[in-house]
Amino acid sequence: MTTAAIITTALLCDWLFGEPRRWHPLVGFGWLVRTLEGRLYGGPGLTPAGRRWRGVAAVALLLIPAAGLAAGLAALPYLAWPVGVLALYAALGYRSLHEHAQAVFTALSAGNEPEARRRASYMVSRDEQTLDIVPATIESVLENGNDAVFGALFWFAIVGAPGVVLYRLANTLDAMWGYRNERYRFFGWAAARLDDVLNYIPARLTACTYALLGATSTALACWRAQAPHCESPNAGPVMAAGAGALGLVLGGPARYGGQWRTRPTLGSGRTPGPDDVTRALALIRHGVWLWAGIILGGALLHA
User: Fold this and answer.
1) pLDDT class of 129 with cuts at 50, 70, 90
2) What is the tally of structural domains in the chain?
3) pTM of the full predicted structure?
4) How many Cα atoms sit within 13 Å of 275 on the Cβ side?
């Protein structure tokens, strides 16, 4: 029952207060990441293997102490509940995701395409000038539904505070180092692979959630046929199932850092319009209610 109470409280805190405006722990973690990268990255003469091992060491130095500290604090009498709430609250990004996507929808509804494009660029890493505003926003909502919501809930439900701290920090490392470019292809290898491992089960549970709450048969068919063609082993199932559940066509070519990248078509149905941004947000919202209900129901059965 304690786990269900912590999850409910953290979800309420996230929705009521959103991300902390000051003293967000991920801001401090980002500073640590950049500092350690500067010390461990190495010079231009370093071999790929040497660079990769330095990346492995950097990931270990950043994540093991943080997860260990969370485990130690959560094990102390009277601290398990507040530490759990704070850890999960800091890891969740549901309200932030909603606010970013809603800002795009509001700008489009007002006919302000430049503002909508600017707002959408905050959500994706592709080039602002060429991004397709509505599909890019919906893709970000679907993918971050896993990364910022359901993945965090899963790891907290399974392992508690240390699990969600490890998951969220690994996800942040992947966002900073997990690029297949010249600088991070080897140094960021460990961060990217760890994120893939930690998201393997949550991504598929998220895809199942989307399928259950939308056009189920279409979502499952898209997941099965399209996800294997995606570059990411976890984003593929999430976005294919989500697009299919919404009856939309997403994916296709996109430009990153001035370079066009071929991406498979995802989903089935029609081209998305602005109102589909709110439909995607509703899919996440209903998924949160479903997960909270399952977790609370399971706790009541075992009480």
Assistant:
1) confident
2) 1
3) 0.94
4) 2
